[in-house]
Amino acid sequence: MDEYKGQFINYLLETGALKIGGDFILKSKRISPWFVNIGDFNDAKSSQALGRFYGEALVNSGQPFDILYGIPEKGNALAVATAIALADQRPDLPWFFTRKIPKEYGEATNLSSSDRIKALVVGRVPKEGQAIAQLDDVFTAGDAKYQARETLLSMGQFKLPVLAIAIDRQEVGIDGKSAIEEYEANTGTKVISIVNASDVYHFLKNQALIPTEGLERMANYLRVYGTATARKTVGKLEQKIIGSDRSVIPACDVETLEQFESLVQQTENIEGIGAYKLGFELGLGYGLSKVVETARKHTNKPLIYDHQKAGTDIPDTGKNFAKVVKKAGVDTVIFFPQAGPETERAWIYHALDQGLKVIVGGRMTHPAYAVSEGGFITDEGALDMYRIAARAGINDYVVPGNKPDTIKQIREIVEAEGSTPIFYAPGFITQGGSISDAAKVAGSRFHGIVGRGIYSVADMKQAAIEHTSQLL
Fold first, then answer.
1. pLDDT greater at residue 189 or residue 110
2. Are both 265 and 226 inside the same structural domain?
3. pLDDT surpassing 70 at residue 197
4. Residue 241, domain member (yes or no)
5. In a domain, 240, yes or no
6. Are residues 255 and 169 in the same domain?
7. How confident is residue 131, by pLDDT bands cut at 50, 70 and 90?
8. Could you tell me if residue 106 is left (phi over 0), alpha (psi between -120 and 50 degrees) or otherwise beta?
9. Residue 155 lies in a domain
10. Confidence band (pLDDT; 50, 70, 90) for 105?
11. I need a surface site. Which of 110, 144, 145, 360 has the fewest CB within 10 A?
C-alpha cells in the first residue's frame, strides 16, 4: 500500500471520520457496519490534509491534468484545497467549479455566446483542449458525475481523463454491477480514490486496530455487497453446516412438540442423520426458542430454520429476523429471497452478521412454480437467486430433489460463479423424487430433506435408516 494511503486511513481514524462497528444507514438504504464521513473535514487543518491526500492520489494515478474541477457542491472546496496542496509542484495549477445559475452581472454582462462559459464558471475558465481532473467526495449511483460531465462538455472541447474521490466503497448496485466500473466504461474517464474498501480492510487487519468481530462484520458486508475485487480481498466465506458430505435431514413439520421430541429421540443416534429442519408450524405454535430447547435435550446436531419462505419481505426486516432466530438458538436459516436482489443481499448479510449460517433456494418442488411450469416466478429470476448467493460466498443451496435436470442446471450456474456447492433437496417420497437419483446429479456433497417419509410412519427410526442408506 502506498504510504499516503495508510496515512489517510490513520487520519480518518484519528479524526473519527472512519466509523467501524455500528449500523450506519447509507444513502442507498443499506445498513453498513462501516462508514466514512468526509463532511467532518470542515476546518482549516482537516481541509489542508484532505487536499494533500487528493493531490497525492492524482499525482500517483499517472493521469494527465491541466486544471481541477470541483463537482458541485462538495467538490467545490476540494478543488481549492487540492490546488493549494499541489502549489509546490504545480504553482500555476488552476481550479474552477460551476454555478447552478449562470451569473448575469458584472463581467458576465453582455457576453458573446462563445464567452457565456464565463457566466457559469467560478475560478479559472478552462481552455479548449485542456485535460480536466474532476473531484468529488464519494461515488454512489453516479448521477451527479454524469451531470457534471454533460455540463463540462457543453462548455467546450475538453479532455476528461480522471475523476478523483476520497473513498471507493467497492459496492455493486441493485443490478449487481459496479456504478464506478460502468461509468468508466461509458465515459472513458478513470475513477481513482485516495483509498478503497480493500485498502481500509487490509490496513485495519494488518495493524490490528479494531476487534476481530468488527473486522469480520466488514468482511461479511463486502462479501455480500462488494465488487469482485472487494470479495477477493476479504476471502471466501467459511461456513460448515453439517460435518459429513452426505446425510438425511428430517423435515420436522409435525403438529405437536411431543411428536417433534419423539422424532428427534428416535433418529438422533443414526449416523446418517445430519441435521433437523424446523418449520413455521412448530415455531409459531410453541415459540422457536421452546422448540430449540426441546431439541437440545437430545441432540447437538445443527438446527436449520425454514420459515417457508424467508426473504420475501423488504430488505430492512432481515435485520430483525436474524436477531430473533439467533436469539432462539438456531444454527442455520433457509432463504427463498423472492422479494428481489436487494432483499436477498440484505437478509444474507444480516444473517451472517448475527453469526447464522445461510442456505439459499430459488426453485421449488411443486408444479406451477416457475413460469416454464405455469407459475409466477421467471426461470431466470429463480436462477438469479442462486447466482447472487454464490457471489456473496454462499455454497449451500436448496434444490428440488424431484427435478434432477433443474439440479444439474443450478449446479452449473453456481459453479460458474466460483462456488463449490452443497445441495439440500426436498421433494422425495410423496413428491416422487428419488434420493439416490438426485444425489447422482448433485455430486459428492448432498443432503436429502425428508419429511413425511420419516415422521408419518410408525417406526421413524427404521424409516430414517432406510433413507440414509440410499445416500451410500
1. 189
2. no
3. yes
4. no
5. no
6. no
7. very high
8. left
9. yes
10. very low
11. 110
Same domain as 96, residue 51: yes
Contact of 204 with 236, CB cutoff 8 Å:
no
CATH number of the CATH domain containing 8: 3.40.50.2020
Q: Percent of the chain, pLDDT > 70?
A: 96
In a domain, 148, yes or no: yes
Domain match, 164 and 216 both: yes
Q: Please tell me the total count of domains within the chain.
A: 2
Statement to judge: residues 269 and 214 lie in one domain? no
**Does one domain contain both 225 and 288?**
no
Domain boundary among 211, 234, 257: 234
Q: Are residues 214 and 261 in the same domain?
A: no
Q: Is the pTM of this model over 0.85?
A: yes
pLDDT per position as a tens digit, 433-460? 888 888 889 998 999 999 999 999 999 9
My answer on whether omega of the bond before 309 falls inside 30° of 0, hence cis, is yes
Query: Model confidence at 106, in pLDDT bands (50, 70, 90)?
Result: low
Task: Indicate the residue among 205, 234, 263 that finishes a domain.
Answer: 234
Q: Are residues 184 and 205 in the same domain?
A: yes
Radius of gyration, CA atoms only, the chain? 28
Q: What is the pLDDT of residue 107?
A: 53
Residue matched to cell numbers 447472487: 388
| pLDDT, position 436 | 83
Range of the domain at 9: 3-234
Sole residue written with cell 486511513: 9
CATH number of the CATH domain containing 277: 3.20.20.70
pLDDT at 109 over 80: no
Give the mean pLDDT of the chain: 93
Return the pLDDT at 39: 81
The 10s digit of each residue's pLDDT in 212-267 is: 999 999 999 999 999 999 999 999 999 999 999 999 999 999 999 999 999 999 99
Tell me if 422 sits within 8 A of 457, measured CB to CB.
no
